[in-house]
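TICKET: design request
STATUS: open
ATTACHED STRUCTURE:
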């Protein structure tokens, strides 16, 4: 049976170039309001984003995870301490808590949507941050679309169009930290991202035990009838 090879790796500048995602040429999070107000071409935005990733890698360390399927980058998460993310100041629900890292952006190729890659990336991010120490949680600004709003007429601030959907964040373990009708700030305890997998694996083992026939001790086994 043919199987897909799946692997999660650290975000690098080379992988950043390979990401086929709308946010690859977006630097909304990385620019302060003055620089963000200046019009720039997609290439200029991509250069700004690459320069930002380079700076964060140099001053803080790994700031993202990329999932590869058969060697091709199909999804990613980018995260960093809020001090590196001036675009976060545009949200009404800022600032981010001092014990948290900010999940900046994420994307999974629609071809691979629904396969759990988003949760795999979140767990990889949690393992990375727990290994560093000093952080208790990840926070993110969610994007909530009011009922009845047209897709192209979302009424929130422009910067929030780059935020992750509330539905996705809730589905991978985030809860509301500071409510807002359009851009709530959401939070996930780092250990909960890993304990979810442990709980699922334990549940699977319990299920296997429930359906597996119990072994009968040798002393209790009946002898086959004599011929």
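STATUS: resolved
RESOLUTION: sequence designed for all positions
ATTACHED SEQUENCE:
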């Amino acid at each position: 049976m043919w199987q897909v090879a799946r692997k999660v790796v650290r975000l690098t500048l080379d992988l950043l170039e390979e990401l086929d995602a709308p946010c690859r040429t977006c630097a909304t999070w990385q620019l302060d309001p003055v620089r963000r107000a200046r019009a720039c071409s997609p290439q200029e935005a991509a250069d700004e984003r690459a320069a930002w990733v380079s700076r964060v890698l140099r001053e803080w360390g790994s700031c993202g995870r990329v999932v590869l399927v058969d060697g091709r980058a199909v999804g990613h998460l980018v995260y960093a301490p809020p001090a590196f993310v001036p675009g976060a100041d545009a949200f009404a629900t800022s600032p981010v808590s001092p014990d948290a890292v900010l999940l900046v952006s994420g994307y999974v190729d629609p071809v691979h949507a629904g396969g759990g890659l988003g949760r795999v990336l979140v767990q990889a991010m949690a393992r990375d941050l727990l290994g560093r120490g000093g952080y208790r949680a990840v926070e993110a600004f969610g994007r909530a679309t009011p009922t009845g709003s047209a897709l192209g007429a979302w009424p929130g601030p422009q910067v929030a169009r780059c935020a992750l959907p509330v539905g996705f964040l809730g589905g991978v373990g985030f809860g509301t930290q500071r409510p807002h009708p359009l851009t709530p700030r959401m939070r996930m305890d780092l250990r909960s991202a890993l304990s979810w997998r442990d709980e699922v694996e334990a549940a699977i083992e319990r299920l296997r035990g429930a359906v597996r026939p119990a072994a009968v001790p040798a002393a209790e086994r009946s002898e086959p009838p004599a011929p």
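CLOSING REMARK: The helical segments are 13-18, 33-37, 42-59, 117-132, 166-171, 190-211. The mean pLDDT is 80.
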